[in-house]
């Protein structure tokens, strides 16, 4: 890696005045586990977030939670985990007139916790049209648009950074959905929209930055009239690096899953199910009852604020009740335009290294019966380390949770864009595992892997499936005094 050329971890519009966001947040009465367990937006009448509510959602999704000095520079800890701590996900806000904020298009500046107005006027009708009339978008007083800036992650991960757009977008989305649920703000993940109009609205150079998701927030009557024109934006931003390296495979992959029109977006919305996990034939280990979810009374905001980065795991065990709480809390579903209650795109497979109450071995998770099926008993620490790209973290973790999907039915229903959906569902679920782990005072780390070898390891049970994500869980190892 070219360290002197490391990208700036923020997008900064250098010619626009900041609109500072309020830093006094309202406390949530919901526990972290109840927040991540929410799968449907609340049934409410009018729910319009004000500037303070939006500030809270932005802070606990993508804000800087603390800053430390390290090796002569500053290191920023953000609310959600990100591969390589490179923070390539940007957030934009499209809203009508709100209490404390005029209608417009805004960029969230995490570096100074401010908004910057890119366009004035109500552009929600443009998002409604681009999404093919998606109801959650049509009734949202505000919508957050997620983007990924390719180079900020490709600097380290090259073309594989394309996957990280969804891994890192997903962990951030997990925070956003959980905080919204804790404050009864309707929120929904929307992937069915025409890419071109949204990218043009944001003024993106799509060779370098693209939109990856919409999240409508709140509920009110739809806007009247048409959106203002969207002439090209020519707003200078601070250079990310002295030079950037292009990885054409990222653009090719993304463009192959674009939606070209509002009509296509309307037809895209719907439901797919990757199919049931095969009926269990091995020994079943029931998870602890859902009461395990109530063991932590901390709010999701408190958990996010103290979340750290697990760089080493000890070999200490977590308990079955803790693993149960994490699995049950994370897998209750999520509000999304490609899912319905009870449908999933990803199946969960585990390598258990040290979980009190479970034999060491490989497992498949059965959501319907809330049980783990033992596929093969044995000590697979060495294999876990190899599968996780020959790293120590998965070998040392108490448990490794792999997300695998049968892509064929997903792609048949959603076309190439189904790959985005499968990646995001896995990463949002993984982000919820992060929250549950830290709520229970142990750690989590998202990891990369050798794709085909993971499928082979869990086969024949996982034959034909593709790996989307990996999350390792366990107790953090204490650093030595000299480390």
Describe the protein's topology.
Blueprint: E1 19-20, H1 32-36, H2 51-62, E2 64-70, E3 73-78, E4 89-95, E5 104-109, E6 114-120, H3 124-130, H4 135-138, E7 142-149, H5 150-157, H6 161-182, H7 195-202, E8 209-217, H8 248-255, H9 262-268, E9 284-286, H10 300-306, E10 318-319, H11 320-330, E11 347-352, E12 355-356, E13 361-366, E14 371-377, H12 381-387, H13 392-396, E15 399-405, H14 407-414, H15 417-439, E16 443-447, H16 451-458, E17 466-474
Parallel strand pairs: 10-12
Antiparallel strand pairs: 1-6, 2-3, 4-5, 4-7, 5-6, 7-8, 9-14, 11-13, 11-15, 13-14, 15-17, 16-17
Helix pairs in contact: 2-6, 5-6, 6-15, 11-15, 14-15
Give a brief outline of the structure.
The protein has 483 residues and is an alpha+beta fold. The chain has 16 helices and 17 strands.
